UniProtKB/TrEMBL annotation:
It comes from Kluyvera genomosp. 3. Belongs to the AHA1 family. Signal peptide: none annotated. Residues 18-153 form the Activator of Hsp90 ATPase homologue 1/2-like C-terminal domain. This is SRPBCC family protein. It holds the Pfam family AHSA1.
Amino acid sequence: MSEHATDTRDLSISRLLNAPRALLWRAWTDPELLSQWWCPKPWTTEVLAFDLRPGGEFHTLMRGPDGESSDNPGCFLEIVPQERLVMTTMLTADWRPATTPFAMTVIVTFADEGSGCRYTARVLHPDDATREQHEQMGFYEGWNIVITQLEAFANTLK
């Protein structure tokens, strides 16, 4: 568990990014931009649904170079412009219960800090076993790669 996690079921990463909060937010909330940085390269992301509102559908399909795929349907729970995004895999569009085998809620926050932005991603799991599974899947490595890609991509938007 990282120093920023508040519960043993959580995984968390907090980094100071050298990019303006407005550009990080834009990269996150424009589906055409999201698809360009969302998963570790050489994987690709197709945004199948992106309805940026509480109860709106959030659905990505990630594809690996060897034919692997990861289908990720979910639902936005909260949107605070340029400050906070909350989404879950436990619900789909319009609050319909999901039949996901991997339940989690993701909270992403953005806060100005110095000349950059404090970016924090916290992932809540239903139990320690699911958190452990996510950590074993490479949570820290994969999410840190994606955060680095987000930072670099956001800086191209200037």
